[in-house]
């Protein structure tokens, strides 16, 4: 089955990035003259996404006005947070606008150039509740690690600290919407802590390793790195 719907989480304030990009939502931070969000939309359109649901909060009017101007033909809906709901609450609200049984979840400050066909094949072959895209990295201190068994089923999440190497959660997920809707949750919660880390042993949750280009602009140093790296062929 093809994955054709995606939720992009773009409601955060981006406090760590404020010194570099004041007065803009984080996903609108300019990378080589273009909002970072445009790179995500363009790449995942190429991967077959036909409908985007934008989960928005902080200065959402800036984003919606830009989308209407720059992507007039894009099939899109908005899920607006009037107050912060956490990543889980934002997904929970946006999922109500999804028509498909499975939806791709993306972060508006991260570009992970996964092959969607590979992710979906693993997701469906395991009848997974959620399949995470995992990125191999070395000299890790900004992220926790995800450990899987030989079949790729999630075995543990390890807290953030210095690791010589390992697999990080790349922030791109395939989520079975039916299973997600069945569970009762509060309006405000963390998708990472209160769903992934809490339920991985109770529901079929898998990790799909893809060693593809990855950039997270959440801190000024990596925002500056994006300016250089995303000029190169294949990252524009």
For the structure shown, list the relevant keywords:
single chain; two-stranded antiparallel ribbon; 236 residues
Task: Briefly say what this structure is.
The chain is built from seven helices and 13 strands. The protein has helices at 36-46, 60-70, 86-94, 116-125, 177-182, 191-199, 220-229; strands at 5-10, 30-31, 34-35, 51-56, 75-80, 102-107, 110-112, 130-140, 145-148, 154-158, 163-176, 205-209, 214-216.
Structure in words:
The structure is a single chain. By secondary structure, the chain is of the alpha/beta class. The chain is 28% helix and 31% strand. The chain has seven helices and 13 strands. It has a seven-stranded mixed sheet, with helices on both faces. Strands 2-3 form a two-stranded antiparallel sheet. The chain has a two-stranded antiparallel sheet with strand order 7-13.
Q: Please give the share of residues in helix.
A: 25-40%
The helix/strand order is EEEHEHEHEEHEEEEHHEEH
Low-confidence stretches: none
- Quaternary structure: single chain
Average pLDDT over all residues: 93
How much strand?
25-35%
| C-alpha end-to-end distance | 28 Å
Secondary-structure-based class equals alpha/beta
User: How many extended strands?
Assistant: 13
Q: Report the radius of gyration as a whole number of Å.
A: 17 Å
The tally of helices reads: 7
């Amino acid at each position: 089955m093809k994955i054709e719907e995606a939720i992009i989480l773009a409601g955060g304030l981006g406090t760590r990035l404020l010194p570099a990009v004041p007065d803009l939502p984080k996903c609108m931070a300019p990378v080589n003259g273009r909002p970072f969000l445009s790179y995500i939309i363009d790449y995942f359109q190429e991967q077959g996404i036909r409908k985007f649901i934008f989960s928005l909060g902080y200065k959402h009017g800036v984003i919606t006005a830009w989308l209407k101007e720059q992507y007039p033909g894009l099939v899109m809906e908005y899920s607006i947070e009037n107050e912060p709901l956490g990543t889980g609450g934002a997904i929970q609200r946006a999922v109500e606008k999804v028509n498909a049984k499975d939806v791709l979840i993306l972060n508006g400050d991260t570009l992970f150039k996964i092959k969607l066909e590979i992710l979906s094949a693993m997701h469906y072959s395991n009848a997974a509740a959620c399949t995470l895209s995992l990125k191999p990295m070395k000299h890790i201190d900004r992220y926790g690690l995800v450990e899987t068994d030989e079949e790729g089923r999630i075995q543990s999440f390890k807290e953030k600290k210095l690791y010589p190497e390992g697999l990080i959660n790349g922030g791109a997920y395939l989520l079975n919407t039916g299973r997600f809707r069945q569970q009762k949750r509060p309006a405000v919660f963390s998708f990472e802590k209160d769903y992934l880390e809490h339920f991985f042993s109770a529901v079929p949750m898998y990790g799909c390793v893809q060693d593809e280009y990855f950039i997270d602009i959440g801190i000024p140093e990596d925002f500056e790195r994006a300016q250089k790296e995303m000029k190169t062929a294949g990252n524009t």
